Amino acid sequence: MLLWCFRAPCLLVLSGVLAHGALYPCNADIRGINATDHITLENPFQTPTNIFSNGSGTWTWTLITKSYPVDDHNSTDLEQHLRLTIEPEADLVTEKAYLGCGAILHGISHRSRVAGQDVVGSDAVSGFCNSALAPRCQEMLLNAAKGRVFHNQFSESDSVQPDRVCDPLRNMLDFSEMSECKDEVGADWWIEPFLWAGSPLMHARCPIEPGPSNLTRSVYTWGQSSYNSTDLAAYNNLTTLIEPIITVLFVPGHKGLRDDTKWAQVHIMCLRTGRNVTQGSHPAPAQVPTSRGEATYLPFTRLLLVCFAVALSWTL
User: Would you indicate the residue range of the signal peptide (predicted)?
Assistant: First the structure.
């Protein structure tokens, strides 16, 4: 049974497919990792002044599906972690001039999710986005995020909770703008923002200590769910999930900020944890599940199953 509360922090999935929020520590150790995917970017953020004015080095974003045994031993909890490693070391916490915000687009269409499994369509800059999203859709998402940080105030005061600092990105899109992504998103898409750089991280739920560090740290966690050996729906869902993630580094807007001092740089990436399944974990699923319990075969078997897919669509 599903209870969807889109665009509100109350998304709950009783059937164990997807849930909002996390109950586990942000920097959980490497044990229990079922599957991963990563992307490495060279000098992704070249700031005009301060922190990355001489270049930002090598950034590796890693998406992890991680499991935790439950006390009754009959089921396993799992969730997704987005982690970041920077070489050489960088201090993303005490930086005052810039903020780093991210936005996860939940709810892409099943067709886009199937297309996003295609390793052939992946690239070194955006992961699986070129397979899952049309160029016009990617451009719209990037422009929407950049426009939001240019035209909205982002408060860093002590009275604002760190997990609310990036909230202006929650409404960065409206339904008219989504016309550019009408083939890529489902009817119930929504945006989940998160903070990944800036002084508010010192007061976050999982606080980051100030000072340079190149240690891998967990940036955000989502997708909490449960599965067991007789019901792998949640596991199959999280290891085939494709969710565009937009990251923005920018000068926080405030009243009186001149247009010539505004600056933002934005990137988009689409990672799929099922790309690299850890030895000993359950094998990657051969099908992409849907919310109705159906499944669509992955791209490498698509040509062999065209007739079957057409016949199946007529029976639904």
Answer: 1-19
Query: 39: which 2 tokens?
Result: 């992307």
Looking up tokens 């201090």 gives 91
4 CB neighbour count, 10 Å cutoff: 14
Where does residue 163 rank: exposed (0-12), middle (13-18), buried (19+ CB within 10 A)? middle
Closest Cα to residue 80, out of 276, 235, 287?
Answer: 235
Alpha-helical segments (H) within 133-169: 135-151
pTM of the model as a whole: 0.79
Please, what sign has the CA dihedral across residues 161, 163, 166, 172?
negative
SS3 at position 299: helix
pLDDT of residue 40: 94
Name, in order, each residue with C-beta under 8 angstroms of 66's C-beta and a sequence gap of 6 or more.
Answer: 28, 32, 33, 34, 78, 79, 80, 81
Q: How far is CA 196 from the centre of its chain?
A: 12
Is the backbone of residue 60 left (phi > 0), alpha (psi -120 to 50) or beta?
Answer: beta
Pair of tokens at residue 248? 């923005």
Helices of type H across the chain = 110-115, 129-132, 135-151, 233-238, 306-315
Structure tokens at 221: 């966690």
Q: What are phi and psi of 303, to 5 degrees?
A: -65, -30
pLDDT in tens, 115-133: 998 888 888 889 999 999 9
Q: Give me the half-sphere count of Cα atoms (radius 13 Å) on the Cβ side of residue 25.
A: 7
pLDDT digits (tens, 9 = 90+) for 72-131: 667 788 888 898 989 988 888 877 778 899 999 998 999 999 999 888 888 888 999 999
Q: Which residue, 283, 178, 224, is CA-closest to 67? A: 224
